[in-house]
Design goal:
Blueprint lengths: L1 H26 L5 H17 L9 H20 L20 H21 L7 H24 L4
Length: 154
């Protein structure tokens, strides 16, 4: 009988010790789909604006928007949310789009990335970086939006 009581106490102790570990494991960041989707959208927007096709009237805006997109990507990665892809990794885009349509498409992707991060699960240790990334995305969107509206497209 003494061994049964001892076994029950030991089992209860193990269960009690394991419970905090289970809760702690749930707090550790894992794959965050909203962040990963935002990274994909940002990379696509970057490729639509990339210098490979640079159209002279919007080249400055193009480069400035890319700078802010890169900053947003880096902030998301600093938050330890990374898909392992580099900024210049190949990315399939519709290369048949006109310069104006590339800016329009980049703008759509920037808005999607903003929405993804805005709705992303809250990871307290990444909150400040996420908010800064959203600010960089919004700034890039403003640049692209202004260029899209004011450039004299051919």
């Amino acid at each position: 009988m003494f061994s049964k009581v001892r076994l029950m106490v030991l089992t209860a102790g193990i269960v009690a010790a394991a419970a905090p570990m289970t809760v702690q494991a749930q707090e550790v960041p894992g794959p965050h789909p909203a962040y990963l989707h935002a990274l994909s959208d940002l990379r696509a927007a970057r490729h639509y604006l990339n210098d490979g096709w640079a159209w002279a009237p919007v080249k400055r805006e193009d480069n400035e928007a890319i700078h802010h997109i890169d900053a947003a990507i880096n902030m998301i990665k600093q938050a330890s949310i990374d898909d392992g892809k580099g900024l210049n990794d190949p990315f399939h885009i519709d290369t048949g789009l006109s310069a104006h349509d590339r800016f329009r498409k980049a703008n759509e992707l920037l808005l999607a990335a903003h929405r993804d991060l805005e709705r992303a699960e809250d990871v307290p240790q990444a909150r400040q970086l996420r908010n800064h990334a959203i600010a960089e995305i919004d700034y890039a969107h403003t640049i692209v939006d202004n260029a899209e509206r004011t450039a004299h497209w051919e």
